[in-house]
Design brief:
Helix 20 links the parallel strand 17 (477-480) and strand 18. Helix 4 (60-74) crosses helix 23, helix 6 runs antiparallel to helix 7 and helix 19 (465-474) runs parallel beside helix 20 (492-498). The protein folds into two domains: 34-309, Glycogen Phosphorylase B (Rossmann fold); 354-566, Rossmann fold (3-Layer(aba) Sandwich), CATH 3.40.50. It is 41% helix and 18% strand. By secondary structure, the chain is α/β, with parallel strands linked by helices. It binds pyridoxal-5'-phosphate (PLP). The site of pyridoxal-5'-phosphate has 13 residues, from helix 4, helix 19 and helix 20. Residues 59-60, 63, 394-395, 463-465, 468, 490-492, 495 line the site of pyridoxal-5'-phosphate.
Length: 580
């Protein structure tokens, strides 16, 4: 275990003595026999969003990976996260109504990683040498493979050669890296199908070391969890047999494994989900709704059942420290960040004045961050005085409908002006997504031509963890409008609720884990009805903030319903219960 400064800072909140204490708290004492520092929980992910450790992600998938590791570190669970280290990092700029980008070089040494050794994989008739680097963080570590030309996260086409190279590097290279540092996985959690090759590497190792293929398959399946975040299998990219001949088969030693994999092609094409389902007996979806509706079939044509493990967040990472202290002092959450036995009774005791004092501190923290961030005009959009802050912060993708509040600009302007609201919009457009870049441009032109909107709507480019945290902490009301059925879980809304904000949302993803009267729900038979409903909810939310009684009851209802959902320790507990 390390004892450097950042480690101590990280554990500043009520650290527990020993992992056994956590296992006891979640009623899993036998876990001490299932995992150890040499036999950790392993978590495989193509994306990690953890900039304090040098790696920037793209969105929710990476944030979830980072939070899962942080929760494990806090509770001292032996945990190894294996991911690529991308030497290049994209950033978004915005000026003169044009979306732009620049790319920053990142070096791992700068973030405290140490070089272990190299491993080789075969790709495109070449031997590729990958650096293995690691960083230990308490009971956890981040183990990475990388090389100078590894490229960026999600660069190129999703069915392209470079993506396959990156995925093969993570799987085959990462599996060798694990052995290099002397670890054996107690479990392999595959965070989406891009990590399939890690399980394949294990199967190949067991089989080529003399285990019977079927025995090796049973063993691998029993110890592999496939976590699905996508709703429709049909939308997934495919790879061709020719691509596998160049990037995958040369890395397999076992003829039986090669044969097994070759047989999974259909008309010379393969979807990684199809083989991930075959190699993982354990399968989970990331919210109750998502686990129910994810439409996946195995190769025999049977519908795949997913166990629902709703995402959670690492509460101390995303919450104003004073609010964390308050939730602990009032015994709403315990030292493991789990809801206490009496959380419902204790939430009932929250008073409006506590919420207002804490939210004022949150506003100051948000302004501190905004004082060094830019809006679409290159200004620092700090909010002064009594104004309310509403926000919409998430990746700028169509299904999340960032443009919904702008459908009737007069109506929006009227609400913002009448209730003295500043509206913050944050979300990166993926480089190369010309459709969304055009939509953003149109939206900000509408804002520019309307004097009220121009004063009150602030677009913050290059959305990242810092902005996500600051807006959750400082905003009074947040807006979440995915098309119902398309959000797997989402976690930004959890950050809003834990920071005592009022949530306006469609009933989708993890929000739908609880009944629709747990928050300000947007409903409607079509988009026009939903938009009308959204405006009514925005006015209602503004009025709630002007009235102590309504504020108190709204925040209490949100917390009573979602406290257990939000807790990342609850998520870890659910995974451990499912896996062991
Ligand atoms: C929390 C967070 C996310 C997660 O977004 P959802 O769309 O709600 O899943 C993505 N990006 C950043 C920077 C975040 O902080």
């Amino acid at each position: 275990m390390m004892g450097n400064l950042s480690d101590k800072l990280f554990h500043r909140l009520d650290n527990i003595e020993d992992v056994k204490e956590f296992y006891e708290a979640i009623d899993r004492k036998h876990l001490s026999n299932s995992m150890s520092p040499e036999r950790p929980y392993t978590y495989w992910t193509i994306e990690l969003y953890d900039k304090s450790n040098g790696i920037r992600g793209g969105g929710g998938l990476g944030v979830l990976a980072a939070d899962t590791r942080r929760v494990a570190e806090r509770q001292q669970v032996p945990f190894t996260l294996i991911t690529p280290f991308y030497p290049s990092e994209p950033h978004q700029t915005y000026s003169n109504f044009e979306n732009g980008a620049y790319h920053e070089k990142v070096s791992y040494a700068q973030y405290g990683f140490s070089f272990i050794d190299t491993v080789n994989i075969k790709a495109n008739n070449q031997i590729c040498t990958l650096d293995v680097i690691e960083k230990q963080l308490g009971s956890t570590r981040i183990l990475c493979v990388t090389e100078p030309n590894f490229g960026e996260l999600y660069s190129g086409d999703s069915g392209g050669d470079h993506r396959l190279y990156q995925e093969v590097s993570l799987g085959f290279g990462g599996y060798q890296a694990l052995k290099l540092v002397g670890l054996k996985p107690a479990i392999m959690q595959l965070n989406e199908v891009a990590t399939f090759f890690a399980a394949l590497a294990r199967l190949d190792e067991l089989t080529s070391n003399g285990m019977d293929f079927y025995e090796a398959m049973v063993y691998t399946r029993k110890h592999t969890l496939y976590t699905n975040h996508t709703l429709v299998q049909a939308a997934e990219a495919e790879f061709s047999y020719a691509q596998f001949e160049r990037y995958v088969f040369p890395n397999l030693r076992s003829k039986a494994v090669k044969k097994w994999l070759s047989d999974k092609f259909n008309d010379g094409r393969i979807k990684l989900s199809a083989v991930t389902i075959e190699i993982a007996e354990l399968r989970s979806g990331v919210s109750k709704l998502h686990a129910r509706v994810a439409n996946y079939h195995d190769l025999a044509g049977n519908k795949v059942k997913f166990k629902a493990v709703t995402n959670g967040i690492d509460i101390p990472t995303w919450t104003l420290p004073e609010i964390v202290d308050y939730l602990k002092k009032t015994e709403i959450i315990d030292k493991f960040d789990l809801p206490t036995e009496k959380y419902l009774e204790n939430i009932e005791k929250i008073e409006a004045k506590d919420i207002r004092v804490l939210k004022d501190l949150g506003r100051a923290e948000m302004n501190r961050v905004l004082s060094h961030r830019l809006d679409q005009y290159g200004n620092h959009p700090v909010v002064e005085g009594e104004a309310l802050v509403f926000d919409f912060k998430r990746r700028f993708v169509d299904y999340k409908r960032p443009w919904l509040p702008f459908k009737d600009q007069e109506r929006l302007a009227d609400i913002l002006e009448r209730y003295n609201i500043h509206y913050f919009l944050a979300g990166r457009v993926h480089e190369g997504d010309h459709t969304m870049a055009a939509k953003l441009k149109r939206l900000l032109e509408i804002v520019d031509r309307n004097s009220i909107l121009k004063k009150r709507v602030h677009y913050l480019p290059d959305y990242d963890e810092e902005l996500g945290r600051a807006l959750s902490i400082g905003a009074n009301v947040s807006i979440n409008t995915p098309i119902v059925g398309l959000e797997a879980c989402g976690t930004s809304w959890m950050k809003d609720i834990i920071n005592l904000g009022v949530l306006i949302s469609t009933h989708d993803g993890g929000v739908a884990d609880c009944p629709s009267d747990s928050y300000l729900s947007i409903s409607g038979k079509n988009e026009a009805e939903e938009t009308e409903n959204l405006y009514l909810r925005m006015e209602e939310a503004a009025r709630i903030w002007s009235n102590d009684f309504d504020l108190e009851s709204t925040v209490k209802v949100e917390l009573k319903n979602y406290m257990p959902v939000i807790s990342g320790s609850r998520m870890l507990k659910d995974y451990l219960e499912y896996l062991f």
